[in-house]
């Protein structure tokens, strides 16, 4: 079998990256000139990638200023968005202008947890029920065992769901500035080992994850109980400024929101927002997030209220926004620069900057919802894509 070149002693060098590009060229006939053009020091990559051969270059556009009134940021910020979709940055830029002209967007982080979901197995449902009672009574011991594996993660609470002879649990952790999936997996494993030794009832065994943590996929459970951060972004749109900037009235936007909500229900979509994934994918790539977490994070709940004075209250709730300012790809050079330009690196008043990043992200998503809704109403959705979104 033909094997990809590897160096067991040190696989993270310029020489090994070049060797793998040469190998790929031999196998495919394609010269990987652009793939090899990267400023990343291979020595930075352990823990981020295996068998590295180069980098994917994605253009980064700049949108803003975005005016955010949060509990971690209160002011203007410019937002880097990595994308290859024409019109996307322009659209978000337009939505940010409307938000700014209407006084800015208020953002609230309601809660933030990461989960791992062990399942405990028994001979019958009563044994599972009795174990659930024991688990509540011994929460402190479970918590101590889990937290021996991490200096950052803290076990907050455990949800319980009985099914047949099984007790499904959902262990909820706070994770500091990290997203924390791996952190929680390690902590949950330590907790399960402690439980297996400490519980004297008829426990047959456990499965470390029974899938109700719904990693890398959206679920109704995440909508209700949150995974990552539950963040709410709100704005009150002024009638005159909305009409002037977006060529759409607040009444028209209220109506189109209802049309979209009804259509989404008809189609069975996972949320009633329009396109949160656009902003999230662009920000995730620019700031080094786990891009697969867009699958969970994109779920959004839009709520609008047309007020008597003609103003339009618009809120967007993201119940499962998974982001970090520490760990994963956030430490790579390009991604670190993008985080730094938004003030999302380091600490402030003894706290990390993940809250600031979450608030900026939710506000950005709301800007995109307003812009796309307005484009649909004004009839320039297709024309703008035709003008800016085609490589001629």
UniProtKB/TrEMBL annotation:
Family: Belongs to the HMG-CoA reductase family.
InterPro entries associated with the record: HMG_CoA_Rdtase (IPR002202), HMG_CoA_Rdtase_cat_sf (IPR023074), HMG_CoA_Rdtase_eu_arc (IPR004554), HMG_CoA_Rdtase_NAD(P)-bd_sf (IPR009023), HMG_CoA_Rdtase_sub-bd_dom_sf (IPR009029)
GO molecular function: hydroxymethylglutaryl-CoA reductase (NADPH) activity
Gene3D superfamilies: 3-hydroxy-3-methylglutaryl-coenzyme A Reductase, Chain A, domain 2, Hydroxymethylglutaryl-CoA reductase, class I/II, NAD/NADP-binding domain
Name used for this protein in its record: hydroxymethylglutaryl-CoA reductase (NADPH)
Organism expressing this protein natively: Algimonas arctica
Biological-process GO terms, alphabetical: coenzyme A metabolic process; isoprenoid biosynthetic process
SUPFAM superfamilies in the record: NAD-binding domain of HMG-CoA reductase (SSF55035), Substrate-binding domain of HMG-CoA reductase (SSF56542)
Domain of life of the source: Bacteria
Pfam families xref list: HMG-CoA_red
EC number(s) reported in the record: 1.1.1.34
Main EC class the enzyme belongs to: oxidoreductase
Keywords, in A-Z order: NADP, Oxidoreductase
């Amino acid at each position: 079998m033909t094997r990809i070149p590897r160096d067991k002693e040190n696989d993270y060098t310029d020489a090994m990256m070049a060797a793998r590009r040469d190998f790929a060229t031999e196998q495919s006939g394609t010269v990987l000139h652009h793939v090899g053009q990267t400023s990343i020091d291979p020595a930075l990559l352990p823990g981020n990638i295996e068998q590295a051969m180069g980098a994917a270059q994605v253009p980064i556009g700049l949108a803003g200023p975005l005016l955010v009134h949060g509990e971690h940021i209160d002011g203007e910020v410019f937002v880097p968005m990595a994308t290859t979709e024409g019109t996307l940055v322009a659209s978000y830029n337009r939505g940010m202008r409307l938000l700014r002209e209407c006084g800015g967007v208020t953002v609230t982080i309601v809660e933030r947890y990461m989960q791992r979901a062990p399942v405990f197995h028994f001979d019958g449902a009563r044994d599972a029920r009795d174990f659930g009672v024991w688990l509540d009574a011994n929460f402190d011991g479970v918590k101590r065992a889990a937290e021996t594996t991490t200096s950052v993660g803290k076990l907050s609470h455990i949800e319980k769901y009985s099914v047949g002879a099984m007790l499904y649990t959902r262990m909820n952790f706070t994770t500091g500035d990290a997203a924390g999936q791996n952190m929680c997996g390690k902590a949950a494993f330590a907790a399960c080992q402690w439980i297996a030794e400490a519980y004297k009832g008829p426990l047959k065994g456990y499965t470390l994850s029974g899938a109700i943590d719904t990693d890398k996929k959206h679920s109704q459970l995440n909508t209700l109980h949150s995974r990552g951060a539950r963040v709410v972004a709100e704005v009150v749109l002024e009638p005159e400024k909305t009409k002037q900037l977006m060529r759409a009235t607040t009444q028209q936007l209220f109506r189109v929101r209802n049309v979209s909500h009804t259509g989404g229900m008809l189609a069975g979509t996972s949320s009633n927002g329009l396109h949160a994934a656009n902003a999230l994918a662009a920000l995730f790539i620019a700031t080094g997030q786990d891009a697969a977490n867009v699958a969970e994070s994109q779920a959004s709940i839009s709520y609008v209220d047309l007020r008597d004075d003609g103003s339009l209250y618009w809120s967007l709730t993201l119940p499962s926004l998974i982001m970090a300012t520490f760990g994963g790809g956030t430490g790579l050079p390009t991604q670190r620069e993008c985080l730094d330009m938004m003030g999302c690196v380091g600490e402030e008043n003894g706290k990390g900057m993940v809250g600031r990043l979450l608030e900026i992200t939710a506000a950005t998503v709301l800007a995109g919802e307003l812009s796309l809704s307005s484009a649909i109403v004004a009839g320039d959705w297709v024309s703008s894509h035709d003008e800016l979104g085609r490589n001629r």
